[in-house]
Amino acid sequence: MSSAREVAAATAEALERTTAAGLNATLHWSRELLDREAQHADQVRRDGGTGSTLYGYAVAVKDNIVTTEQPTTCASRILEGYVSPYNATVVDRLRAAGAMIACKTNLDEFAMGSSTEHSAFGRVKHPLDPARVPGGSSGGSAALVAAGAVRAALGSETGGSVRQPASFCGIVGVKPSYGRVSRYGLVAFGSSLDAVAIFGATVDDAARVLNAISGHDPLDSTSVAAPPMGRPDSWDDLSGIRVGLPREYFPADLDPGVRAGVERGVAALRDLGAEIVEVSLPHTKYAVPAYYIVAPAEASSNLARYDGVRYGVRRDGDGDVRALYQATRGRGFGAEVRRRILVGTYALSAGYYDAYYLKAQQARALIAEDFRRVFDAGIDLLFTPTTPTPAFRAGEKTDDPVQMYLADIFVCPANLAGLPAVSIPVGRSEGLPIGAQIITPYFRDSRMLSVATLLERALEPTEEVR
Ligand code: GLN
């Protein structure tokens, strides 16, 4: 095993390489900080730590997860230069397990987006094709794992922001069950949906990180009182496992490369002994509209704290406190964040609450009920495409927010229902990675990763599928 010092040096070189290549995946890092992290990792190992299970890992961290040693900007002008007085629980737990924090990564401003084009600090490029997007909102973390700079990275999911970029970049993306991992120190976007989520070069890399960061945290009232997720059992095959293919996730206009990739995954599941059954989740069509009411509604409330008084940047404006708010928020937030605040405030307003917010919550309950019904009927897991298309071109969807929102169609249902889900690479189409998704019942994260490991072993991720 390489020493922490060696990994730190190799990581610094790799980050320099990705910077020189213009990936724009990092917002902050330094060689000196990496060296200090290596010393800390060695100290943890000498002390025995919590088993030093992540010794030798440099982990990139999305810049909406707070750190005391580096700024946290959420890729927003409004938080430019902000440094948190405390670490997120996940950051403390990574370090306690012997990992090094490699850098802070670029994202869509406040994690609102599906392409990392909505960063105030410039877009992130896809590591395989600079004209394309890496997905989003955790695009910086995804690009660094895909470029081989780090083996694992933290992102966050409110509506698919780790699985979608994992799929675009050809890596593993795990969204744990809601409440499995502490949100303390994850900057709030949609609190009933938010989760810290993980990118790995392999399923094992992601599983190790999840093992280290999961488990109850008294500092997060929505954290479930359960021990950390154990390392997934290693399975020989899938005999006795029933896999559901939800009809609604295979529309007629699904990209042919995506379809071929997922079919390759289905064939592998069958070869491993699984029984394949077609199922229906009839309310899937309401997932995107429900998500794009609930998430902005919660965001409009959560983002009220950036007022020019309590955090970051302040612009006084011309006159009273209202002018201060207007100047600070008007200039500090980018267009997409302002759009979300407007939509969310509207949906929550007295006159429209019943028509929008309440309706969206009802649709959300029906979506969760769809999942419950198929799992209660004996389906162990669902297998679906992660995204309707491979990575799209930069600029393709920035003028049409609804088209951008539709990129989340297969990923946001699991967030609305709080379920664990993972995206794994299943092949390539015209050189671009294709991802497939496994969704399991609540808190079956470990089983889900056992299945993902078997599938990963059965498939060559860089093979062309058509
Ligand atoms: N693309 C979704 C959005 O823009 C998801 C974001 C996320 O998961 N953080 O809201």
Gist of the model:
Helix content is 38%, strand content 13%. The chain contains 14 helices and eleven strands.
What does this structure look like?
Helix 1 runs antiparallel to helix 2 (31-47). The chain is an alpha/beta fold and 466 residues long. The model has no long low-confidence stretch (mean pLDDT 96). The protein has a domain at 289-354. Strands 1-3-2-4-6-5-10-11-9-7-8 form an 11-stranded mixed sheet, with helices on both faces. It has helices at 4-20, 31-47, 89-96, 139-146, 163-169, 203-213, 256-271, 287-302, 321-332, 335-348, 354-376, 401-406, 412-417, 445-458, and strands spanning 26-28, 58-62, 100-105, 152-157, 172-175, 195-200, 242-246, 275-279, 381-385, 421-429, 432-439. The site of glutamine (GLN) has 14 residues, from strand 4. The site of glutamine has 14 residues, from strand 4.
User: Roughly what fraction of the amino acids lie in strands?
Assistant: 5-15%
Q: Tell me the strand order in the biggest sheet.
A: 1-3-2-4-6-5-10-11-9-7-8
Q: What gyration radius follows from the Cα positions, in whole Å?
A: 21 Å
Distance between the termini: 38 Å
Number-wise, the strands total 11
Order of helices and strands: HEHEHEHEHEEHEHEHHHHEHHEEH
Sheet of most strands: 11 strands, mixed
Give a topology summary.
Blueprint: H1 4-20, E1 26-28, H2 31-47, E2 58-62, H3 89-96, E3 100-105, H4 139-146, E4 152-157, H5 163-169, E5 172-175, E6 195-200, H6 203-213, E7 242-246, H7 256-271, E8 275-279, H8 287-302, H9 321-332, H10 335-348, H11 354-376, E9 381-385, H12 401-406, H13 412-417, E10 421-429, E11 432-439, H14 445-458
Parallel strand pairs: 2-3, 2-4, 7-8, 7-9
Antiparallel strand pairs: 1-3, 4-6, 5-6, 5-10, 9-11, 10-11
Helix pairs in contact: 1-2, 8-10, 8-11
Bound molecules: glutamine (GLN).
Glutamine is lined by residues 111-114, 137, 156-161, 189, 295, 408.
